Amino acid sequence: MPVGKVYLVGAGPGDPKLITVRGLEALQRSEVVVYDRLAGPQLLSRIPDHVERIYVGKRPDRHTMKQEEINHLLVDLALQGKTVCRLKGGDPTVFGRVGEEAGLLKQNGIAYEIVPGITSAIAVPAYAGIPVTHRELASSFSVVTGHESPDKLDRSIHWDKVTNATGTLLFLMGVAKIGYISEQLIKHGRPPETPVALVRWGTRAEQATLVGTLQDIEKKVREANFQPPAVIVVGDVVKQREELQWIESKPLFGRRILVTRARSQASELADRIDELGGEPYEFPVIETRLPDRPETVEAIRTAISEAESYDWVILTSVNGVEFFFRWLELTGTDIRRFHRAEFAAVGPKTAEALRKRGIVPSALPERFRAESLLDSLGERVKAGQKALLPRGDLARELLPRELEALGVESVSLDVYETVPAGRKDEFLLEMLQEGGIHAITFTSSSTVINLLAALREMGVEEPAELLAGTKIACIGPVTAKTAEENGLAVTVRAESYTLDGLVQALIEYC
Ligand code: SAH
After folding, report:
1. Each residue of 273-323: pLDDT tens digit?
2. Which family does the entry's similarity section mention (predicted)?
3. CB of residue 119 inside a 6 A radius of ligand 1
4. Annotated catalytic residue within 5, 15, 36, 425
5. Which of 38, 91, 233, 234 to mutate to test the pocket of ligand 1 (most atoms within 8 A of CB)?
6. Which residue, 45, 145, 198, 277, could crosslink 230 as a Cys pair with Cβ 3.0–4.6 Å?
7. CATH number, domain containing residue 143
8. How far is the CA of 233 from the centre of ligand 1 (A)?
C-alpha cells in the first residue's frame, strides 16, 4: 500500500477565514483531520462529511492524548495510506510542537508539508486594535511562553534579557502566571505603569479584552475571573487600542449565530453576519435536489412540453428558478418556447435570479408573500388563462387556490424537493449546551422542523428545551408560527420577510 502524507497545518487563531488558502486546500483534500481545541469549530464544519475527524485535545470525560501518542497516531494513519491533515491553532511552529510531529514522520520516511498559519500572537492583539509594532512605540517584539511551572519558566526565560531586549512582549499560555510574569518584568526594569492587555479567545465570538498595567493586571485578572486562552501584550502599543479597536464596534460583535438554511443558500446569510462582526455557524438542515419519483418527473416533462400553452410562469423562490432552468436543460427545452407567457416573481431575490437568466419578470409585489403577488398582478390575471408554478415540494397551497378563484388554471410543479440534511455535530451540541450559540436563524418552516429533528437524531430528547436559552430569529410569520408550535419562543422577527429584514432585526435585537 502506498504511504500517505501528512499536512501540518496552521488553522489560524479561530476566525475560519484566517486560515491560508494552502491550509484550506490541505484540509479539504485530506481523508483524516486530527485537531485539538484551538482549531475553530466553524472551520471543522467546512470539512466534507466523508472525512474522518479525530479530536486529540483536552476533554473532561476522556484522557487527553499525550504528544507522543499524537506523533504516533500521525505515523500510523500515514502508514495506512491516508492523507492526513494535522490542524493546529495559530501557526504550527509557534508553541505547536510541530518539530516533534515532523521529526517522527521524517524518521518513518513519511512525506509531510508544514503549512504556516496566522499566529494568535499577532492576530489576536490585532483584533483588539493593538499592532505589535509601531513606528514610535515598538520596533521589535518577542513571543514568550508562560506555560511552564515558575522554576522552569525561570530556567528557559532569561528575564533580564527578555525584559529589556525588545519593545512589545507577547506571552502565550500565560494567564495563570500573570502575577509572576508582571513581577519578573518589574523586577528586571520595566516600569510598573507599563500598559498590559489580555485578549481572550481573540477573533472568535467570545473575544474579550482586559487592559491594565504591570502593577495592577494580576488583581484585575483575578477580579474579572479572566480565563485562558489569552494572549498577553506588554508594552506601549497597548495604548493604541483606544484609538484603533475596530471589530468590537460592529453591530453583531460577540454573537455566534446559527445559520440553518439549505446548504446551497447558507453562505449568503453567513457572509452578512460575518461582515457585521458576528460569527456565523453554519448548520445546513435542508438539502434541495431534483425529485426522482417517476410520477413527478413525468408531470414535469409533460408540463414543460406544453410550454406554448402558458400565459404565466410564476416563480416563488430562487430555488424554484434554479431548478426550473435545470429541468429545461435536462429536457433540452429552449426558454423561448414560453414566448406566450409573462414571467412573475415573488420577492426581489427571485426576480433577481430571473433577471440573471435574461428574463425580466413583469410583476414584483410590494410585500413578499404569495398573497400580494396576486394583488400586484391585478387586472392582468384573467379568467381562462393558464399559469405554470414551478416550485418546491413544500410550497404552500395559497397561490394555486387564489388563482383558481380568479378562474386561472394553474399547473403546480415540484421542480425540486427538500430533504433533511443535519449531520451529527458534536461542536454544535456542545455550544448549545454551554450557551455558546446566541441566536438561531430560521428562514422557513422546514428549517425549524429539520433542526429539531437533527438534534433529536443527535440524542437530544427535548430539543425545544435545549434551545430555550437561545434567541430565535424568524424570517416571517409562517416560520414563526411553526417555531412556536414546536415549543420555541420567537424573539426576533423580520419585518420584511427577507434576509435583509432578518439581518436588520438581528442587529436591532443585539
Ligand atoms: N500555535 C499557536 C499557539 C499555541 S499555544 C499559535 O500560533 O497561535 C496556545 C496559546 O495560544 C494559548 O494558551 C493562548 O495564549 C494562545 N491562543 C491561541 N489562540 C488564541 C485565541 N484565539 N485567543 C487568545 N489566545 C489564543
Report:
1. 999 999 999 998 988 899 989 999 999 999 999 999 999 999 988 889 999
2. Belongs to the precorrin methyltransferase family.
3. yes
4. 36
5. 38
6. 198
7. 3.30.950.10
8. 13
19 and 164, same structural domain?
A: no
Comparing C-alpha atoms, which of 55, 429, 481 is closest to residue 258? 429
Asked whether residue 151 falls in the same domain as residue 237, the answer is yes
- 172 close to ligand 1 (CB < 6 Angstrom): yes
Q: How far apart are CA 242 and CA 246, in angstroms?
A: 10
Residues 318 and 412 placed together within one structural domain of the fold:
yes
Burial of 297 (0-12, 13-18, 19+ CB in 10 A): middle
Is 250 one of the catalytic residues?
no
- Per the annotation, the verdict on 173 as an active-site residue is yes
Q: Which residue's alpha carbon is at the smallest distance from atom 11 of ligand 1?
A: 172
Q: Is-above-0.70 flag for pTM?
A: yes
Q: For 115, list phi and psi in degrees, rounded to 5.
A: -110, 105
Q: Is 416 helix (H, G, I), strand (E, B) or coil?
A: strand
Range of the domain at 90: 5-118
What's the structural domain count of the chain? Answer: 4
- Looking up residue 435, the CATH number of its domain turns out to be 3.40.50.10090
Domain co-membership, 229 together with 349: no
Q: How far apart are CA 260 and CA 483, in angstroms?
A: 13
